[in-house]
Amino acid sequence: MMTNLHCWRALALVVATVAAVVAATVTGAEGVWEGPSVTIQPCTTKRAAYQQWTRGPKNEIVLKSNGSCLDVQGYSTADQATVYTFSPCHPDDPDPSHQNEAWSINANGTITELMSGKCLDRSQYGTSPGTQVWLYHCTGVYNQNWIYNKTDLTIRANDSGLCLDAGSPTPRTCDVEPGKSLPFCNTALSYDDRIRDLISRINDSDLPGLLVNSATGVEHLNLPAYQWWSEALHGVGHSPGVHFGGDVPAATSFPQVIHTGATFNKTLYRKIGTVISTEARAMNNVQRAGNTFWAPNINIIRDPRWGRGQETPGEDPFATGEYAANFVSGFQDGEDMNYIKASSCCKHFFDYNLENWHGVDRHHYNAIATDQDIADTYLPSFEACVRYGRASGLMCSYNAVNGVPSCANGDIMTVMARESWGFDGYITSDCGAVADVLNSHKFTRNTSETIRAVLEAGMDTDCGSFVQQYLAKAMQEGVVPRELVNTALHRLFMVQFRLGLFDPVSKQPYTNYSVARVNTPANQQLALEAAQQGIVLLKNTNARLPLKTGLHVALIGPNADATTVMQGNYQGTAPFLISPVRGFKNYSAAVTYAKGCDVACKDTSGFDAAVAAAKEADAVVVVVGLDQGQESEGHDRTSITLPGHQEDLVAQVAAAAKSPIVVFVMTGGAVDLSTIKANKNVAGILWCGYPGQSGGQAMADVVFGAVSPGGRLPYTIYPGSYVDACSMLDNGMRPNKTSGNPGRTYRFYTGKPVYEYGTGLSYTSFSYHIHYLNTMDTSLATVQTYVQDAKQNHKFIRYDAPEFTRVEVNVTNVGRVAGADVVQVFVEPKTPAELGAPIKTLIGFERVFLNPGQWTIVQFSVNAHDLTFVDASGKRVARAGEWLVHIGHDSRLTFPVHVN
């Protein structure tokens, strides 16, 4: 035993020198050594000391190299309890609650811990190297099946074939030989030179495993496996590269992106990106997360039925681009500009906005888009992401556009993104999208042609197994040359070099980030502020809101006690979830909760209890809306009215209440609120998206006046009849009399909305007046010259264009309470709709917070780009005439600018 203890101590000292160490050596209560969390890793003889297991006399599973036993940390029997190794083994511990080192390897493939009866489980159904192994109740699902090989003594995951591994993280390639002495580890050389040297040393046989998200590594170079797929949409999220548990049980869960988009706060976007990547890097340092994250989602909400609209900032291309640029720069930039803190990937490139509608799914959808719509709606947010945000990743989407699958579209990925915009990162496919090129879109004839098509188009890595399965064959046939593969590898390695993975950790501050940076009080406060700022007040008859504190409040509705619903999708494990019921209890003398019905609201048997609660209360708040059963990835809605009988619930409760009620709408996509808006017994309507971990507290803060609402709608709320006039398969943005399309988004919709884009009320009032206005008429030739110059020289026209008008707006809080205002600027052409010009277009916004009587100056400019629009050929053009500049979504200030 002393020999084993000394070996373990020596191993611990080695582990401690590695940057990304997990629970290296922890002195337990008995003065013994504990090993790292157990994971699955590629099976290799170099890691045999961590991957060979024997059986002990008391049903122990023993690591052959040092005699330590497979154990559950803290003697826990809970789901997600950390599995690790412990020495010395203690199967005969007299305390029955400590006898958790006995395991049964069962004929059905499961391995169960005998004290709890629970199964050895791969977290989040992970199949990639580094996936954490934990204890979980037995489900019969594939991630609990194992194969014990009595010949080589490995325990393998039966789906991925990876081995149960008790070792420390694999050392960095450049910390050990042979890499340490090779040119690709020489920091005096340029990244390009180092990468070329590295690629030259990789054998053809190693290539298939390197161009997929679960990259296998190169054994003879000690190049470790790498997982490209981690998620961070609104907080570090569940994904193959992320493993919550142990030292990182949770991460800050910010509001869903549609809610954050409603804040119209660019500073907040950047702060959220910064916090998420800091938490991500800290988690990476203990092998709980990757370094490359597939966020943000910056597709435009062209249709309210889209199930993933919740993941985006809204319907406007400019506002979405501002979100992308600020989130990405906050995410990637940090204290050391020599490296990116974490890699951000903007998705889904491009024109992706349908999941599954009337039998047409995203894998088969061919979006027919005009050059005009592509140029002024579907591409601008990605251009901002690349040019302004400097994103290091893009994801090509499942769908085809005009017959060409996105992942095989070289005009978009190479000509547009790389050559015109200057994109210098990697491009991944969405998961399974490479296979879709062949099998769903029938764009290619065979597997080899498919791989060549996507690599030639500019894609670098396949989220899936298609390339890994068929690349060797394609190369042997001569269809895919090594040079094409090398180009993709170069771009992939460039991102890893920029992350510092091949440089000494002593030179990098990010490798020192500890888990103490995860879920800090400051991060929790930022999540609360984001939730507060995104709440939109739509109706407030007779100043019903805010409510007085100390009232008896009836909180009613399917989302009145929501918890996980408030996270939306692509969520991580939150440290806590404050439901509306819990939040309201901080302000009310009494809270009576009555669900009424679930979100689907087909069963109305709970209505009587809801009505009874309403009759007894001083004030009534009904929380209606959607959840992931109504809108989600893979699922679009067919209607935009509230599900089931939710409107009836509101009507019955409103009729029974002592005084007009308040309705909260918790939803990602838009729902028709016309009936509720018209109900005279409904005095207040608030929209809250999916407000995140502190959503219930934020909702209560606004209802009771601790915070004045300052959010603005990030999309148009249409009447329910909109979906009857417009097919989801009609990808056009402009009105079309032939198809009946009334136009999409505030820029082109010709009908009367229930609520306009940018709408939002406050508990206070703000006055606007022009403080300074410098307008100079400009010639048509000047604008046209700049447009041509921008095109020829690949300039970012929106941000590089010369300024023609500068306006300074004095914004004063003339009300009685402190509050935030969002100052929005729109331009309107003299003849909207001529040649397809938008009705109006957002060109700027700023959020300001003012105390009563306080004022500030907000500056905006109108440049050459703002006085142009995209014509039917997809070219940006200028026209002579008058343009109107509107300050505020309600155009409270307007002035003209002339192009002569």
TrEMBL record:
Q: Where are the transmembrane segments?
A: none
Q: Give the matching InterPro entries.
A: BXL, Fn3-like, GH, Glyco_hydro_3_C, Glyco_hydro_3_C_sf, Glyco_hydro_3_N, Glyco_hydro_3_N_sf, Ig-like_fold
Instruction: Indicate yes or no for the key word Signal.
Output: yes
* Fibronectin type III-like domain mapped to chain residues: 821-891
Q: Name one GO molecular function term.
A: alpha-L-arabinofuranosidase activity
Ricin B lectin domain ranges (all copies): 59-200
Going by the UniProt record, its keywords in alphabetical order are: Glycosidase, Hydrolase, Signal
Q: Which residues form the signal peptide?
A: 1-23
**Entries under PROSITE patterns matching the protein:** RICIN_B_LECTIN
Q: Which GO terms describe its biological process?
A: arabinan catabolic process; xylan catabolic process
Which family, according to UniProt?
Belongs to the glycosyl hydrolase 3 family.
Kindly provide the name given to this protein in its UniProt entry: Beta-glucosidase
The record lists the organism as: Salpingoeca rosetta (strain ATCC 50818 / BSB-021)
